User: Fold this.
Amino acid sequence: MKLCLSTWSLRDHIGKDFPFREFPRVALDRFGIRAVELCQTHFPPPDSGRLDQLLNVVADTGSTIVNIPVDVGNISRRDERKRAHDVGLIESWVDVASYLGAPSIRVNTGHQEGSLDLSITIASYRRIANYAEAKGVKIGLENHGGISADPRNVVEIAEAVGRQRFGTLPDFGNFAPETRYEGLVRLVPYALVVHAKTYDLDADGDVPEFDFPRCLRIVRDAGYDGYLSIEFEGKGDQYDGVQRTIELIRRVDPSVE
Assistant:
């Protein structure tokens, strides 16, 4: 497995300590990480000029863009016109990923009023996946609240859309406590990227909220050999939180690159 750094980990510093386009350089210079996950919410308006500036930094640092988590739209809403509009917005981020050479984007399920009709969600994902497949981009689904809070829904969607163009982004921290480890077992076989989320670490360098080493062992034992994207979500210093998360991961599994 290899380390990746999400912009979410340094969310309070982007646009203050450094411009968004410099994030790959910060990841490399400060943490020695050459793989980045770029959250859509942190992008400036993604015209070609700004994207080219980002690509220049990626090239200068020898970095890789692993994924773009997208947080726009609700692809499960019942109103067809509104749903189609939101799907179109998401497809524009497929275009951004294609321009940047990113292999995937994360698309949320959204939510739905009343009793769940998962066929609406699946139809939306199929449309987006069809569009993305033609551009060499895969669609990822994270356990990220709403419909995706239930790992069974995530697996059903993944199977319905097809593994060749769709996968999961299992997040250690987003599961309900009672489903965390079972849910991780269910989602990892489909994983495109794994979110190694941490919160404020204790004096021993551990995550008090859940068993981080157990999560990492589940991922490793499933045969996953992709990127572990660090998502530090604590309230403390974010630079320190990232560094301590790296140390935790390598303490648990020294083979992680």
User: Anything to note?
Assistant: Residues 213 and 251 are 9 Å apart (CA to CA). Residues 80-100 form the longest helix (21 residues). The beta strands are 2-6, 35-37, 64-70, 104-107, 138-142, 166-169, 194-198, 227-232. The mean pLDDT is 98.
